[in-house]
Amino acid sequence: MDASGVRERVADLPKEPGVYQFLADDVVLYVGKAVDLRSRVRSYADPRSDRIRRMVRRAEKIDFAVTDTETQALLLEANLIKRHQPKYNVRLKDDKSYPLVQLTDHPVPRIEVTRDPEEGATVFGPYTDKGRVDVVVKALRETYGVRGCSDHKYSGRDRPCLDYEMGLCTAPCTGEISEEAYRKDANSVVRFFEGETGVLADPLRQAMEEASQNREFERAANLRDKLDAVESFHGGGGEAVSGRSREREVDVLAATIEGDTATVARLHSERGQLVDRSRHRLQAPEGEDRVAEVLAAFIPQYYAERRLPDALLLSERPDDAELFAWLEAEGVDVRVPGAGREAKLVELALKNARRGPARGDELGALADALGIARPTRIEGFDVSHAQGKAVVGSNVCFVDGSAQKSDYRRKKLPDRNDDYGNMRELIRWRAERAVEGRDDRPNPDLLLIDGGDGQLGAAQDALREVGWDVSAIALAKDEELVITDSGVYNWPSDAPHLHVLQRVRDEAHRFAVSYHQTLRDEVKTVLDDVPGVGPATRRNLLRRFGSVDSIRTASADDLRDVPGVGEKTATALKRRLSGGQ
After folding, report:
1. Kindly report the CA angle at 288 between 282 and 290, in degrees rounded to 5?
2. Residue 243 binned pLDDT confidence (cut-offs 50, 70, 90)
3. Spatial CB neighbours of 283, under 8 Å, sequence gap ≥ 6
4. In which element (H, E) is residue 279 found?
C-alpha cells in the first residue's frame, strides 16, 4: 500500500476514538489506537520510521473499530496485540493484563484485585488505574466487612484475624456475623460495581460529616479523599469495557440495515475483558422487523462451525422459538439489555455496525433531495409504550451523520394510548425548552419523526403552538417513505440520503424502546408517589429500614437520618404512609 492508498482509505474513517489494524492476507501486521482515527491513520501516508514504512508497504487493507472512550481503545489495542502478536508492534513478552476485581464463587465470597480471576468468580473490570481500584476495594471492606483472606486461612479458625480488629472484615469465619447477613453485605459490594455508587458514597459522606462535626479533621480529610475516588470510579474512566459477568465468554451482537445490506457487528468478551471484534455483511430481508430477522439468520450460520459463547447480548430479540430452544439446549443465556453496562456494550456494537464503507456526502445528497440547506445537526424522535402504559419519548441527535450520545435526551410521558398525542407532547417538550432557553443544546437543522403522516402532523402542531421555527419530516417504517410538507418521497433503497435518515430513525426507536423496557421492569412502591423521594433516596430508605412497613413506623428523626431525606421529605413520608395526601 502506498501513500495514496492510505489517504484513500482515510476518507472512510471517523473522527472518533478507536483501534485500527493494518492487514495483509488477513494477517494482522500492526495494531494501533487513536483519539481521532482519521487523523492518526492519515499520518501513515508519511511514516517516520523504516519499520513502519515497511509495514505500510506490505499492508493490503486497513480495518478499524470505534470505541466510546480513549480508555476502551487503550484496552482493546492491548488485548488485540496479545491475541494476534503483530510483527510490527512492540510486544510485551509477559502475560500481564489490566487488573480486575473478583468476588469468588464461595458461600462466603472473598474480594480481591487480580489479573487472573478464578473459575466461577463474579468479575468486574478491567480497570486502568490500579491505585484507585485499591482505594475503592479498601473502602468497601471498611464499610461492608468483606473478607480478603484466602480460603485456606478462612477455614478452621477459632478466633478472628487482625483484619477483624482493624475493621476490614466482619469475621464470618468464627461466626461473628451469619453467612446470610454476610451475603447481604457482599451483594451491596456487587451493586456498587454494577454502578450504584451511592451504596458506598453515602456511608462515606455521612462518616466524613460526622468526623468534621467531631473536629476529627484528619479522619475527615482521609474520608474525603476516599469519597473522591469512589465518586469518580464509574464516571471518570474507572471501568473501561464491561461490567459484571459470571460467564467466561460473552458475545455482543448488533445489527443495522442500510437499503438492501445488513451489517452485524460482534464484540467478544472473555472473563470480563473485551478482546476481539468483527463485522459481517448480509443480504437484508424484507418486512417490518428486519433487524431481528437479520440476527435470527446470522446466529445459526455464524456459530454452525464455531464454539458458542456462554451468553449472547443482542440489540433486538428475534421472534424465533426454534432458535431460542437450540440456544437454551446448548446452555447459552440470551439477553436483550435495556439499561446498565451490558446495554452500553450493545450500543458500542451498534456504533461499529453503522460504520460501513465510505458513504460520501449523505447530508449533501439529503439537502439536494429535500431542497433545503445541508442539515448538519438532525434530531430524531420516537415514542414507545405498552398499550398506553409506561409511555416514554426519545430524542437522539446526529451531527455530520454520526450519533452525538452526549446530546441524547429522554422523557417520561403521561400514560395514554394515543400515538399522535404522545408525539405532540414530546415535540412540545423539546420546543418549549428550546424557546425558553432551558435546553443547552444547539437548535437542530432538521427534526426526524419516527412514523407517518399522523405523527408528523402532531409534531408540526406542537411546533406551531410553541413558535419554534425548525423543519420536521417523518420516515415511515413499512415502506420507508419520507413524508414532508411538500410531498412524499419514495427513494431507492440504496440512496445514501435515505440511509442517513434510517440510522437516525432506528436509533431513536432503539433508545425509546430501551427506556420503555427500563420503566416497565421497574419495581414500583408507594414511596414513588412521595414528593422528594427519587430512586436513590428510595434505595437508602429501604436499605436502612428493610421494608415500607418499617418506614411507616419509623420516627421523623429516624427518617431524617437517612441520606437524601430532609424535613419536608420526612413530613411527606409520614403523611403519605399514614394514609394522608
Report:
1. 20
2. very low
3. 260, 261, 262
4. strand 273-283
C-alpha to C-alpha distance for 244 and 194, rounded to whole angstroms: 6
Shortest CA distance to 74 belongs to which of 150, 133, 129? 129
467 backbone φψ class: left, alpha, beta (φ>0; ψ -120 to 50)? left
Residue 319 burial by CB count (10 A; 0-12/13-18/19+): exposed, middle or buried?
A: exposed
Quick check: 399 and 445 in contact, CB under 8 A?
A: no
Q: What angle do CA 426, 432, 438 make, to 5 degrees?
A: 115
Measured CA to CA, the distance from residue 371 to residue 373 in angstroms comes to: 7
> How far is Cα 454 from Cα 501, in angstroms, rounded to an integer?
18
Tallying the residues shown for the chain, one arrives at 581
- Average pLDDT, integer, range 95-120: 80
Answer yes or no: are the C-beta atoms of 221 and 231 closer than 8 Å.
no
Distance CA 554, CA 562 (A): 11
Cis peptide before 126 (omega within 30 of 0): yes
3-class secondary structure, 515? helix
The 10s digit of each residue's pLDDT in 293-320 is 889 888 887 886 678 899 999 998 888 7
Greatest Cα pair distance, the chain, in angstroms, is 84
Contact in structure between 388 and 415 (CB atoms under 8 Å): yes
Question: No. of H helices and E strands in the chain?
Answer: 21, 20
Distance CA 475, CA 482 (A): 5
Q: What is the side-by-side order of every strand in the sheet holding 333-335?
A: 273-283, 261-270, 249-258, 311-314, 333-335
Say if pTM beats, i.e. exceeds, 0.70. Answer: no
One-letter-per-residue 3-state SS of 205-235:
HHHHHHHHHCCCHHHHHHHHHHHHHHHHHHH
- Percentage of residues in the chain having pLDDT higher than 90: 26
Cell representation of residue 75: 484496552
The C-alpha cell 470480563 sits at 272
Q: Which helix (H) or strand (E) holds 557?
A: helix 556-560
Angle at 267 between CA 263 and CA 271, to 5 degrees: 165
pLDDT tens, 155-181? 888 888 888 888 889 999 998 999 999
Confidence of residue 408 (pLDDT cuts 50, 70, 90): very high
What are the CB-based long-range contacts (under 8 Å, 24+) for 301-308?
302/264, 302/266, 308/332
Q: Write b or e for each residue in 6-29: b if 16 or more Cβ atoms lie within 10 A of its Cβ, otherwise e.
A: beebbebbbebbbbbbbbeeeebb
Q: From the centroid of its chain, how far is CA 279?
A: 20
Count other C-beta atoms under 10 Å from residue 40's C-beta.
18
